Amino acid sequence: MAVPYVPTPRDVAIEMLRLANVRPGEVVVDPGAGECNIVVLAVTIFNAIGIGIEINPALVRSCIETFEKLGGLKGRAYVVWGDLFDFDYSIADVITLYLGSDANEKIRLKLIKELRRGSRVVSHDFEVPGWRPIKSIVVNGPFRTHRIYLYII
Ligand SMILES: C[S@@+](CC[C@H](N)C(=O)[O-])C[C@H]1O[C@@H](n2cnc3c(N)ncnc32)[C@H](O)[C@@H]1O
Fold first, then answer.
1. Which among 130, 137, 134 is positioned nearest to 152, based on CA atoms?
2. Which one in 15, 68, 78, 114 has a CA-CA gap of 20 to 30 Å to 93?
3. Ligand 1 neighbours by CB, cut-off 6 Å
């Protein structure tokens, strides 16, 4: 189940965090974080604590470089180098997904087991198989339209 790095466009990412109603101090986790764009937006725009999980070390390095370049994110932005299927998501208030249907299906049981009641999951373009979204919206990106699905545990 290879999921390549394709970044969520900035405006779409902001809409994902808005749809999830991210509040200051909440923990936003991005499994498969790429260059941590969503983590940085969660911290800098929504005043949340952002955690990215990324398996590709070059992308993890890029996350760290971005955190250092921006500065002031200490204690608020984190990246974990590892497999997203090994992470314990129980600390998350909000999960942002951009993975694909197979990976969404695989992570689903873990999320159900680990997330607290009321936690929100937003998924870019791919539904979580077997879950019914509370809401889904279409957002215009620079090159195409994107769909975002919101689920509440
Ligand atoms: C489509 S990109 C999404 C990037 C970011 N979440 C965003 O929306 O901008 C998927 C990312 O998941 C990472 N990835 C794929 N499988 C993974 C795994 N098992 N554990 C951690 N990261 C993984 C890829 O390296 C890639 O960076």
1. 134
2. 68
3. 3, 5-8, 30, 32-34, 37-38, 53-56, 59, 83-85, 98-99, 124
